[in-house]
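From the pipeline queue, job 12 of 40. The input is one protein chain; the requested action is below.

Action: predict structure.
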Amino acid sequence: MSISKLIFTAVLLSSVGLSGCAGWSHQEKGTAAGAVIGGVAGNLLCGGVLCTGAGAAVGGVLGHEVTKKK
């Protein structure tokens, strides 16, 4: 996947995704953001579907835990 396709896809998904996030809690937004960042990082590191999914899962868990109320 070329970098321009990746950037376009990220911008499109984030704009569509964020339009429905108005009623989400801080922790739900952190989970979603972590999953997106983790998915992109996983894709950039090894470029496969498995790596993208694993990165999204790990990023989602980390985003959930980091934004947990103390």
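Job complete. DSSP finds three helices and no strands in the chain.
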